[in-house]
Design a protein that fits this description.
The protein is an alpha+beta fold. 31% of the residues lie in helices and 26% in strands.
Length: 180
């Protein structure tokens, strides 16, 4: 996370709408890649043999590979023609399948403005009471560039606040930034 903040709030196990990508095994033609996508949709396990990740996320970013995630991916894939979701990455010589706007269980993080741990705890408590906890803060998926979150809405706000409420102490969710 590129920032100059001293503390980061990490909220684990939150479902957000984001975009996913996976490298396909087909390397010859778009037609072969489309056939591969069709086989994937029809398979029992979309994740077997593939490394799915959140778009622009080096470490993957997907916390839970569940049946509901598979169902959401299939639903999105069935709404479009395979060739509309397949891109050729010439620099890596591979086809990538992109699946947009899927609910994914992941970890979120946001840079805090406080300079001490005690102030950071108070900042988080105040943040949870705000009408819009996204205003003035750059929330993103942990370890991913450019945020990756498609929707900042009341449902996500409530999920973040509920998740923080489930933690033993807010202090446990606040970490010192490695860039400080």
């Amino acid at each position: 996370m590129a920032n100059h903040s001293k503390y980061i709030l990490k909220v684990r196990n939150v479902t957000v709408y984001t975009n996913l990508e996976v490298i396909l095994k087909s390397k010859t033609t778009t037609e072969e890649a489309c056939k591969e996508v069709t086989r994937m949709i029809e398979s029992d396990d979309l994740f077997k043999g593939y490394k799915w990740k959140i778009e622009e996320c080096a470490e993957g970013g997907i916390h839970e590979f569940s049946d509901s995630l598979q169902a959401a991916i299939r639903e999105r894939m069935e709404q479009e023609e395979p060739e509309d979701s397949i891109d050729w990455n010439g620099s890596k010589i591979q086809f990538e399948l992109n699946v947009a706007h899927v609910p994914v269980n992941t970890h979120l993080e946001v840079a805090l403005k406080s300079e001490s741990k005690e102030a950071a705890v108070k900042e988080v408590e105040a943040l949870c009471k705000l009408e819009n906890l996204f205003e003035g803060y750059e929330w993103q998926i942990e370890g991913c560039g450019d945020g990756g979150i498609n929707e900042f809405n009341d449902e996500l706000k409530d999920a973040i606040i509920n998740r923080l409420g489930q933690e033993g102490k807010i202090e446990d969710c606040i970490e010192e930034s490695s860039s400080s």
